[in-house]
């Protein structure tokens, strides 16, 4: 999961903490933490739920992270 895309979309909605993202999406905070830290692969249901909550595409949440861009930033 592309945590940067999720956090950017969440911030635009005023959700700047994992607690707020979890509350809005209905995911458990532990589940959200495992998703954004890459410890588990997201289910289709969870990705769709997050995308719907923040008005973004599923593809944007699943887009691979450009490691070179992340290091340069």
Map the helices and strands.
Elements: H1 3-12, H2 18-25, H3 29-36, H4 44-54, H5 58-62, H6 67-72
Descriptive report:
The chain is an all-alpha fold and 73 residues long. The protein has a single domain, classed as 434 Repressor (Amino-terminal Domain). The protein has helices at 3-12, 18-25, 29-36, 44-54, 58-62, 67-72. It starts with a helix and ends with a helix.
Note the main attributes of this structure.
mainly alpha; 434 Repressor (Amino-terminal Domain); 73 residues; globular; 66% helix; 6 helices
Name the shape in a single word: globular
Tally the helices: 6
CATH topology: 434 Repressor (Amino-terminal Domain)
Tell me the CATH architecture. Answer: Orthogonal Bundle
- Roughly what is the average pLDDT, rounded to an integer? 91
User: Roughly how many Å is the radius of gyration?
Assistant: 12 Å
Tell me the count of domains. 1
The CATH superfamily is identified as lambda repressor-like DNA-binding domains
Describe the structure concisely.
The protein is mainly alpha-helical. It has helices at residues 3-12, 18-25, 29-36, 44-54, 58-62, 67-72. The chain has a single domain, classed as Orthogonal Bundle (434 Repressor (Amino-terminal Domain)), CATH 1.10.260.40.
């Amino acid at each position: 999961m592309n945590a940067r895309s999720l956090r950017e979309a969440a911030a635009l909605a005023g959700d700047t903490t994992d607690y707020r993202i979890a509350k809005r999406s209905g995911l458990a905070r532990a589940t959200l933490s495992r998703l954004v830290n890459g410890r588990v692969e997201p289910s289709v249901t969870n990705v769709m739920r997050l995308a719907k909550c923040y008005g973004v595409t599923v593809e944007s949440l699943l887009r691979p992270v450009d490691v070179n861009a992340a290091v340069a930033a």
